[in-house]
Specification:
The complex is a heterodimer of chains A (309) and B (362). Chain A has 309 residues and is mostly helical. Helices cover 70% and strands 3% of the residues of chain A. In chain A, strands 1-2 form a two-stranded antiparallel ribbon. Chain A has a two-stranded antiparallel sheet with strand order 3-4. Chain B is elongated. Classes of the chains: A mainly alpha (309), B alpha+beta (362).
């Protein structure tokens, strides 16, 4: 609140105009307003608009004629998605991708964190920084880069591992795993960083007490390390699951969206929305994906809240 | 149970000598207290005994066997830390079971249960057994931490200021509890504290440590009534001892410009012969100053009450004579107000004299 006297009009004293200072709350609202407007325009409105579209028949490429494009058709989009046998393959492929990549990242990331945190060598800081580098790159660039690594004719991946001419990119039986490998390569450092943060927060005297109690390393790991890092691991898990579920840039960069591409939901969503321009069908698929993500993460968050107590 | 011996133990951290050539012997079943101010090296000493630090010099003996190369796990000592080192997310029972779990102990489930409930009974924490440790109060947590230490009957019980994080009331209760535990269990206790009250009330013997050096070892009575040097005299005792600069002139001890003149006895006079005309430090415990409203003795001196601090059972008077302030402990009946004139006399039989150059007792 202003410390000045409230007056309706500007005060005129000795010919000088005194402006009534703006109240703090008005100023506050003024500062928030641009953000709120921006949020409504680019977030809230599209959210509801696409929800509306998902219950209609609409293509963004056609001229807007109310009653024809969009035309309300109820839940037909949803039922078509849920009864499409191909769609179930896509759900399973996506789930496989999430489990493999996130699982690999969690195990490798936590393992690396333990290794780096426990050991003491000179270049520790440098090594940690180098390990974090993949995470700092743009995913599209990473995808294109790995496409080159994976090339069966002259790529370095096969050459370094001595694998011969294995086609990692255009073989539909294999290219899902190629993307999983890149995802793990790129995001393991993220889990590692969070784990190191968690490990550093464990007080040293807990280990000393356990040492005096003659606890084995396994007992120390299970009873001290794991429960103390658990909440941060859960945070990493939540972030990585959401990201892996909606992964688009990596598969797009490595394999592209063509016929040989792995049947991931996000690639399919792109194809229906922006290649065949079935906007309303894409909106419905987007909503289904949103519901799945919210449901999974809310389970994790429930565990997180429990761990925090 | 075991005895502990430290032989010319030294520990250096970079530029700082934390422990400087310490020799110490703790008897079997003794309650031994290491007393000293912050940064004296008390915790380091304890960590050396536990094996959590390696000494730069000297040996640690448990039961006359050198354990320098023995890992903390195999030394069979228990350690109670200053912080409550309880394993989070586990119940009190699980915490107490923890030291019994390692496989080499070969304890069956029922044996573990029996031990846990026995310890819980000793520490009065039976009702807490199924509670999670995060929901416990400070006193309860420290009790559980102590329980985790005693559950496996170690050779030596090492305690690093276990009561410093508790409030005053609880600390007093835990002091009694620990003394009782020591009597009941008959363990060897090696207890570290900066609190002289803890040391005085619980210890069989006390070692006073400062800047990595042991200044005096002795019973609480010895430490209090005949401190070996100025530091010990100052550090032990509350309210703090009065230390005054004095000099001997014929049969009297003179403080300041004849502010105080105290007669010294025949025996004291003889032992102090070679110190005549030299500066001395006179130490008088506050309870050795007798205060009265009327002049009762010939050597009483007149002083004014500067301020008083009431402690309930007794009052601490801060008396002013010229530029000297003396602390005296008097019964509360005296009821003196600020600015009152009273008469005080020093009980010279119980005075302590120190050499200002060496700070040692004369």
């Amino acid at each position: 609140m202003s410390i000045f006297k409230k007056s309706k009009k500007n005060d005129t004293r000795n010919g000088q105009v005194y402006y009534r200072p703006m109240r703090d709350i008005t100023l506050l609202r003024l500062f928030i307003l641009p953000t709120i407007i921006l949020l409504i325009v680019i977030n809230v409105f599209p959210l509801f608009w696409s929800l509306f579209l998902s219950f209609s028949r609409y293509s963004a490429k056609m001229p807007n004629i109310w009653g024809t494009n969009p035309r309300m058709i109820g839940t037909i989009n949803y039922s078509r998605i849920l009864t499409d046998p191909d769609m179930w393959i896509r759900f399973i492929t996506t789930a496989k991708y999430v489990v493999l990549s996130v699982g690999g990242e969690m195990i490798l990331g936590f393992g690396l964190a333990l290794l780096i945190f426990r050991s003491d060598f000179k270049a520790k800081g440098l090594i940690t920084t180098l390990l974090v580098l993949p995470m700092t790159m743009s995913p599209v660039i990473v995808g294109l880069m790995w496409q080159l690594f994976y090339d069966p004719n002259w790529g370095t991946f096969n050459y370094l591992l001595g694998l011969g001419r294995i086609d990692w990119v255009s073989d539909p039986a294999r290219n899902l795993y190629s993307i999983v490998i890149v995802d793990i390569w790129m995001w393991t450092p993220f889990v590692m960083l969070l784990s190191i943060a968690g490990l550093s927060a464990i007080p040293k005297y807990l280990y000393e007490a356990a040492e005096i109690d003659r606890a084995s390393w396994w007992l120390k790991f299970r009873k001290i390390t794991l429960p103390m890092v658990y909440p941060l691991l859960l945070v990493a898990l939540i972030f990585r699951t959401i990201e892996a579920f909606k992964i688009f840039d990596l598969p797009m960069g490595i394999v592209g969206r063509g016929a040989v591409a792995p049947r991931l939901l996000s690639l399919h969503l792109y194809n229906v929305s922006f290649v065949t321009w079935k906007t309303s069908y894409g909106s419905a698929l987007g909503y289904i994906m949103l519901i799945i993500i919210i449901a999974t993460t809310s389970i994790f968050i429930k565990y997180l809240n429990k761990a925090k107590q | 149970m075991a005895s502990v011996r430290l032989a010319s133990l030294t520990k250096i951290f970079g530029q700082v000598t934390a422990i400087d050539n310490i020799d110490l012997e703790i008897d079997d079943r003794e309650f031994f207290v290491l007393l000293g101010p912050t940064g004296a090296g008390k915790t380091t000493t304890l960590r050396l005994v536990a094996g959590l630090e390696k000494p730069d010099q000297g040996e640690v003996y448990l039961d006359n066997v050198s354990v320098n190369d023995v890992s903390p796990a195999l030394r069979d000592v228990a350690f109670v830390f200053q912080y409550y080192t309880l394993y989070p997310h586990y119940t009190v029972r699980q915490n107490l079971e923890f030291p019994l779990k390692p496989k080499f102990r070969r304890l069956s489930k029922s044996e573990i249960d029996a031990k846990v409930s026995e310890v819980a009974k000793i520490l009065h924490i039976e009702s807490l057994l199924e509670r999670e440790t995060v929901n416990l109060s400070g006193g309860e947590m420290q009790r559980v931490a102590i329980g985790r230490a005693i559950v496996r009957t170690p050779k030596v019980f090492l305690m690093d200021e276990p009561l410093s994080n508790l409030d005053a009331k609880l600390r007093e209760e835990m002091r009694r509890e620990l003394t009782r535990l020591h009597l009941d269990l008959g363990f060897t206790f090696f207890y570290v504290t900066h609190d002289q009250i803890e040391a005085m009330t619980m210890g069989d013997r006390i070692a006073v440590l400062n800047q990595g050096k042991i200044l005096q070892i002795g019973t609480p009575d010895k430490i209090y009534n005949s401190p070996e040097n100025v530091f010990v005299a100052k550090f032990v005792g509350s309210p703090t001892i009065n230390l005054l600069e004095a000099s001997i002139e014929t049969n009297t001890l003179v403080v300041g410009k004849k502010t105080l003149v105290c007669t010294i006895s025949e025996t004291q006079r003889n032992s102090l012969k070679k110190y005549s005309k030299r500066e001395l430090i006179l130490g008088i415990r506050p309870e050795d100053i007798e205060v009265s409203r009327e002049k009762k003795k010939a050597d009483s001196f007149k002083c004014t009450v500067y301020f008083t601090q009431s402690m309930g059972v007794e009052d601490i008077l801060n008396l002013r004579i010229d530029d000297i302030v003396l602390r005296a402990v008097v019964p509360p009946k005296l009821l003196t107000g600020i600015g009152d004139t009273v008469y005080a006399s020093i009980n010279m039989k119980r005075s302590h004299l120190f050499d200002p150059k060496t700070n040692k007792r004369l």
